[in-house]
Amino acid sequence: MGEKFRISGGQALKGRVEISGAKNSALPCMAAALLTPETITLHNLPYVRDIITQRRLLEDLGATVLTPELRTHKINASNVELFEAPYELVKTMRASVLALGPLLARFGKAKVSLPGGCAIGTRPIDLHLAGFERLGAEVRLEAGNVVARAPRDGRLRGSEVHFSKVTVTGTENLMLAATLAKGRTTLYNAAWEPEVVDLADLLNKMGARVIGAGTSTIEIQGDEELGGAQHTIIPDRVETSTFIAAAALTRGELEIKDCMPGHVAAVIKKLREIGVEINELNPTSLQVSCPDGLKASDMITEPYPGFPTDMQAQYMVLMTQAKGHSVINETIFENRFMHASELQRMGARIQIDGRTARVNGPTSLTGAPVLASDLRASASLVLAGLVAQGQTLIDRVYHIDRGYERIEAKLQELGADIERIRESVTGPLPQSFPDIVTA
Ligand code: UD1
Questions:
Q1: pLDDT digits over 115-145, tens only?
Q2: What is d(CA 372, CA 145) in angstroms, rounded to the nearest whole number?
Q3: Taking CA 121 as the corner, what is the angle to CA 120 and CA 122, rounded to the nearest 5 degrees?
Q4: Under DSSP, is residue 232 helix (H, G, I), strand (E, B) or coil?
Q5: DSSP-assigned beta bridge partners for residue 352
Q6: Where are the beta strands (DSSP E) in 284-329?
Q7: Catalytic residues
Q8: Residue 339 CA: distances (Å) to CA of 51, 53, 300, 314
Q9: Does the CB atom of residue 269 touch ligand 1 within 6 A?
Q10: pTM of the full predicted structure?
Q11: Which of 61, 160, 315, 406 has the fewest CB within 10 Å, making it most exposed?
Q12: How far apart are CA 336 and CA 334, in angstroms?
């Protein structure tokens, strides 16, 4: 019995919205807790499904996770007894492969199910595995699982790792593993994403020696052990960008609080180019409006600091409302236009050719029943619903719950006409956001 969003479009969003912690930073930071027997306290964790999944994984491995406050986890991994992430978890959340690096580094062994295909392309983890081999691990594939072992004395060896492609979780996994390796590791062509920097900050608070995070070369001097630490997760830059897009699309006026404008610089630059007014009110707040409408402009996704692939679907919705013709090139993932066919059903004029989408705007969108296919695609359907005439019904909203904290509640507070409904045998019932924090 799946949950849906019902949206009636046409309201201009107005008011203030607070940005939650970054899911993509919280996940590797939670995995980092596996590196030490001491307690890691993480603040500002977002209240989203992927965090619950990661917590379950840590608990399944034997860690204790306490939640003294809704957004704070105290993780203690002194009693880890299991060294594997099962398929049931990995298939719902690829980022569970982030357990590999810490388990291998601290316990000398790890088994993680291979993630396999997903809605946005093949997404292999070969670069993670090749990196572990460079650190001296023996990596085998057994019945759909990756089984990795450290050298005989149980410790990885510091080494040089050259990534042939920029990989965010690959960089994080290797960084995690290298903190407990013997000697120094240098990661070349590393990802620069703010989430990588946030993880490095936490690791350094734990006593690790990581330098260069935020550039393409990261050096890690390995230690025999790491200690406990407290850390506050950075704001979510994709949620920030999604709300900027929502303000622009609905011709509203929003104050976006608790964000880091520097982390969304590429999005701000592009959106200003297409006519969105964005002012930095202070170092953690933005004011967004769009008094003169949107103009079409081409966009290409790139690794950070370029325009993020996680905002490509939302940008496509902006282009359906912009005057003119635009070309969107997706360079990170091979099959990340699943939202296009749903947007077409709402009246958008989009042509897909491989990794290129051509959008003709503006078109007035009409509400329709649509299907969410992945996390960011579902955000784009919510945005489309907010500007469509009539009613949009979005099915499979569990995708959006993976990464956006109470999106419908935040939008309601800004004046949107959106509700979560659950289909029951007696018909649709309104439902508030479920309490997803387990005891
Ligand atoms: C992370 C983000 C995701 C974002 C993506 C790109 C998390 C939890 N997820 O995903 O939201 O969309 O970065 O910014 O942080 N690749 C390989 N081999 C590998 C690893 C990656 O070929 O071993 C390829 C991928 O298929 C993809 C590209 O490299 O084409 C980039 O992927 P990567 O940066 O690894 O994405 P994730 O870390 O999975």
A1: 755 555 567 899 999 999 999 999 998 888 8
A2: 29
A3: 140
A4: strand
A5: 357
A6: 285-289, 299-300, 324-329
A7: 118
A8: 24, 25, 17, 9
A9: no
A10: 0.95
A11: 160
A12: 6
| Inter-residue contact 110 to 83 (CB < 8 Å) | yes
Range list of β-strands (E), 103-192: 109-113, 138-142, 145-149, 160-162, 184-188
Q: How far is the CA of 332 from the centre of ligand 1 (A)?
A: 8
Retrieve residue 374's tokens: 């992945």
328-356 residue pLDDT tens: 999 999 889 999 999 999 999 999 999 99
Q: In angstroms, how far is CA 192 from the centroid of its own chain?
A: 15
- By most ligand atoms within 8 Å of CB, the mutation choice from 25, 169, 242, 339 for ligand 1 is 169
**Residue from 260, 139, 129 nearest 195 by CA:** 260
C-beta of 29 in contact with ligand 1 (< 6 A): no
- Annotate 234-258 with b (16+ C-beta within 10 A) or e (fewer): bbbbbbbbbbbbbbbbbbbbbbbbb
Q: Hey, is 62 helix, strand or coil? A: coil
Q: 270-276, long-range: CB within 8 Å, 24+ apart, which pairs?
A: 270/297, 270/299, 270/307, 270/315, 271/244, 271/245, 271/318, 273/297, 274/318, 274/322, 275/248, 275/322, 276/244, 276/247, 276/248
Q: Which residue has the tokens 């029951």?
A: 424
Q: Say if ligand 1 is within 6 A of residue 159 CB.
A: no
Cβ-based neighbours of 83, under 8 Å, separated by 6 or more: 61, 103, 107, 109, 110, 111
- Lookup result for tokens 């387990």: 438
